[in-house]
Amino acid sequence: MNILTKLTLRFSIITASILVLFSLAVYLFSASYRKEEFYQRLESRAVTTAKLLVTVKEVDKALLRIIDDNSVPALPEEQVFVFDKQNRLAYSSTDDTSRTYSNDLLNSIRKAKKMRFEHGDFEEMGAIYIEEGEPFVVVASAFDRYGKSKLGNLRTIMLLGLPIGIGIIVLAGRIFAEQVLNPLANINDSVSKISAGNLDQRLDEGNQTDEIARLAMNFNQMLERLEKAFELQQSFVANASHELRTPLAAMRSQLQVELGKVRNIDEYQSILQSQLDDVDALSDLTNRLLLLARTSMEHQRLDFSLIRLDEVLFNTQEELARSKPGYNFHFDYNALPENEADLILFGNEKLLSVAFLNLMDNACKFSDDRTVTISLEANDAAVSISFKDNGDGIPPSDLENIFQPFYRGQNTQTKTKGHGIGLSLCKRIIEMHGGKISVLSMLGEGSTFKIVLPVNRV
Fold it and tell me: In the chain, N or C terminus with fewer CB closer than 10 Å?
């Protein structure tokens, strides 16, 4: 069963149930009102008859019967009986003696003061009327022909109207369901046309306020992320293939040349050392590519834990100092917070260490004195770390591209070896931690890379 049929069925069932319950309530209320109103009229006739018979001395039984027979508000087939304290019939508005009342019933009426009961199609009411200390029992009986006829007409109208109403409800439910699902059908048609070749296509977001519009907006955001991820994947594969092919081709060419003639031991050692350096460079490139791919994966926060940022920074500096003894590190302790808890945040220690190592390594490589100045600041909201070098600075034309994968500035291509992965890797790691990385650089005055990480301990 499709959603259109389900919506139509549920809408019809709910609305039809409400209609049936409402009709039933109207009928029951009308029946109750008819009975109550009829008993009130019976009571009024009974009390009036008793008062005329007992209180008004000028009215005898014969005159009272004439009055009852010619009374305008007389009820259909009305009968009124008055019984004295010995339960003897004192007055009857009709000559029909087929209707009798037992002493038990009359005594029950005396005890209850007022009683309602039915006899066949007739509705009857008994009440006590006291005059000069003598209790009389008055019983009024009648058949509510007009009230029951109106109630029957109402029942007939409802029984005939309910099927028609339910039919209209089903039709309206079908139209309602089609109108509700029409935007979803349009979205479905648009989605079916999207493939890997046209990820730039977007869905109509409508009024951008209702639930379906928000669904389209969220889907468009997902398409945008997929498009970026797809483009990134294509770029990554193309650039990675190029970066890996180049050193492999160079190694192959060198080996072919060197194998072309017999050489002495020293020459072979030199060749092997050169090949080892190329293998180390290729291994480093492969590790960076794998790490770059890893940082593109979702749910990396599953490996996050509480860490002290200053300890991660110092441990990374010691690791880099052991591998590069010629590097110099200068820490600015003036901005360190007094409260050590401000340096604790939720993150991945290994990934942050990779980012810090790249930034420190770059700063030392591009500084003539191989020195990086590191400053650490913190407050209740965020921790910021700055890495300043003493190099030549970054040209303005390169600033907007330096965080792109495999991009290398003009001054770096001739000055140092690299693959253009480090800064893009740093940017992804920092963004995974909800932070931001920025650079301030002026030609001839060096560059300062600044990381701001939010303090999020939940």
Answer: C
51-65, 74-88, 268-282, 434-448: least confidently modelled range: 51-65
The DSSP symbol for 100 reads: -
Q: Per-residue pLDDT tens for 382-416?
A: 899 999 998 888 888 777 778 776 666 655 545 55
pLDDT of residue 295: 59
What gap in Å lies between CA 377 and CA 361, rounded to an integer? 21
> Is residue 87 pLDDT above 60, yes or no?
yes
Q: Which CATH class is domain 211-294?
A: mainly alpha
Rounded CA separation 219/226 (Å) = 10
Helix axes 349-366, 422-432, angle to 10 degrees: 140
C-alpha span between 115 and 105 (Å, rounded): 10
Topology of domain 301-454, CATH: Heat Shock Protein 90 (3.30.565)
CA-based nearest residue to 403, from 300, 308, 320, 292: 292
For CATH 3.30.565.10, list the domain ranges present in the chain: 301-454
CATH fold of 3-150? Beta-Lactamase (3.30.450)
For residues 322, 323, 327 and 333, what is the CA-based torsion angle, rounded to 10 degrees?
A: -50
Mean pLDDT for all residues in the chain: 79
CA distances (Å), 54 to each of 106, 114, 127, 187, 387, in order? 18, 19, 14, 86, 117
The overall pTM is greater than 0.70: no
Question: Where are the domain boundaries for CATH 3.30.450.20 in the chain?
Answer: 3-150
Of residues 147 and 253, which shows the higher confidence score?
147
- In the chain, where does the domain assigned CATH 1.10.287 lie? 211-294
Number of H helices and E strands in the chain, helices first, is 11, 12
Instruction: Convert 201-231 to b/e letters by CB count within 10 Å (16 or more is b).
Output: ebbebbeeeeebbebbeebeeebeeebeeee
The reported pLDDT for the residue numbered 457 is: 52
Q: How far apart are the C-alpha atoms of 320 and 308, rounded to whole Å?
A: 19
